[in-house]
Model the fold of this input.
Amino acid sequence: MKGLLTTLRYTFMNLRGQILGWGLGVGLYGIMIVQMFETMAAQQGQLQKMIANYPKEFLAFFGGDANSIMTPSGYLHMYAFSMLPIIISIFSILVGSGMIVSDEERGRLDLIIAHPVGRSAFFFGRFLGVVAAILTMLLIGWIGFSLLLGKSSLGVNVGQMLVPFISLFVQILFYVAITLLLSVLLPSRTLAAVVGGVIVVSSYMISSLAFMDDILMTISKIMPYHYFQTVLEVNDLNLTWLFSLLGISILMVILAWLRFLRRDIRLSGEGSWKLRFSINPKRA
Done:
């Protein structure tokens, strides 16, 4: 337990620069978005006429239409939350792919494991440290989005603003989990990050274009972004979607853990494509 907590604390502190950088970036973006609503609301009539002339496909790609864009959830989705899972996925891919393998490829993981930590404590200490980092980053972002709500005509309170961040957290956790799993299955961290990036981008593109074609709609239903929700009430959350994504993420983390227990520590370029998940108790 002590080794797990030590690893968690070390991982969190090691990510403090990224937590502040990403958190403040999201927070400042939120301040800008909330403030921008006042300008748009003052020119709502002209804006809606202009938007009505846009191609419907353009608005549908960003998940909006001429009628919903000036509603609180529609505005926040189109101008903020629709892109946040993709933007923050950069953080997810880098952290997920490097959570275990970065130390391995630098040749220092064997030295860490040589201490009385244990593979399981090391693995879950790293993972929980990353989860704490994500939560802290999103907390800073939520504060930024909520800072000017009291002076805004957006009509959203701080509790309602928290709801889309719940769905955003699950999306980020999913991308961390899948790149973590890929990193222990594929021969290198770079390859895991590339495959993770392809999954993120294709998920966004296919889900955004799903309205155009039935085949794309069918494919989008196996993509994580399809289940991202920008709603402002907890009762409006689709809990089946939310907990399904969360459950899949936990399953991928468990599979990554089992693989980490089983495989030998390697250096970059020494990986294999073996996908065995049997556990060697001596390494746990």
Observations:
- The first helix runs from residue 2 to 14.
